[in-house]
Amino acid sequence: MAHTTRRLALAGLGTLLASPALRAQPWQPSRPIRIIVTYPPGGVNDIVGRIIAEPLSRELGQPVLIENRAGAGGNIGTVAAAQAEPDGHTILFGTTALFGVNPLLYAASSGVDAVRDFTSLGMIGEVANILSVIPGRVQATDMAGFIAEAKRRPLIFGSVGNGSSSHLSAALFLSMTGIEATHVPYRGSSPLVAAMLAREVDFGFDTTATSTAHVRAGALRPLAVTTTTRATALPDVPTMQEAGLAGYDLGIWFNLGVPRRTPAPVVARLAEALDRARSAPATHERLRTAFVEPMALPFAQNEAFIQASAARWQAIARAARVSID
User: Fold this and answer.
1) What is the pLDDT of residue 198?
2) Integer Rg of the chain from CA
3) Which of 59, 115, 152, 162 has the highest local Cβ count within 10 Å?
4) Residues 6+ apart with CB under 8 A from 128
5) Domain ranges within the chain, ordered by starting residue
6) Domain 128-225: top CATH class
7) Mean pLDDT across 47-64
């Protein structure tokens, strides 16, 4: 996908905001708004959620509070957001995993499918996952050496949760290289990074937002990033394609969404507020400081983008036979 379209393509909300009926029915929140983040505090989802909450609060004239509802790969928080009153006062912090693989893993048991049940207000940012190995447990310093080492002995890898983008980034890597490794899922980025720093696993995939500082400190040894372009924060780290895995391209995006039953005037007001909050120079600076690339799409393109992304991630999950058992 063209990164020029996915990043910084700031645009208006088109016909949604042009309707005279919507202009005649302005909506304002009447109490604090909560953003449900479906992972624990300290990880990239929590970081980005708090970055966007501050300017969004200014735009809407109400406090915007982060509520961490972790568990079941993010599905617990997703269900809570789906069951909330569709009045604009509860927003889901969406991720690639929630809209991508979770409908495949959890929809049958929970009845919630994020693609079907939520309207996207807009994108916030995008990060790459980094394939990092643990010095002292892995000797290899490049991809070829790591693949060779991994084929000589059993390895253990960690992820931020079963079915997460971290897990599926590893699953695609293993399928493309023929490596076998034992998977240990953790409950979010912070527990995963802690386990990697404690040398409990041999390697893992985690985002630039939570791994870059440890990479720069030498505690983690990066081998490649999962996007087709190098991460701004780590320009010397090659992409997976540059490292020899042709066709590997998995970026992780973040958005905000509300239950699909939310009235159009409410959606329009929230989407407009998000667009203003996201496009503020101070927001861009804070996102980049957190090693997240600002990302935006015209409002009318959000749904098609999410559906295409979900289809791709679900194909990877099916090929890897990912399940919640």
Assistant:
1) 97
2) 19
3) 115
4) 207, 208, 225, 226, 227, 231, 251, 252
5) 3-126+251-319, 128-225
6) alpha beta
7) 97
Beta-carbon contacts of 2 under 8 Å, excluding residues fewer than 6 positions away, are none
* The predicted structure's pLDDT at residue 325: 61
CATH superfamily of 3-126+251-319: Bordetella uptake gene, domain 1 (3.40.190.150)
So what's the pLDDT on residue 281?
97
| pLDDT-based confidence at residue 7 (cuts at 50, 70, 90) | very low
Fold agreement between 3-126+251-319 and 128-225? yes
* Confidence tier at 11 by pLDDT (50, 70, 90): very low
Report pLDDT digits (tens) over 151-171: 999 999 999 888 888 999 999
Token pair belonging to 105 = 């893993």
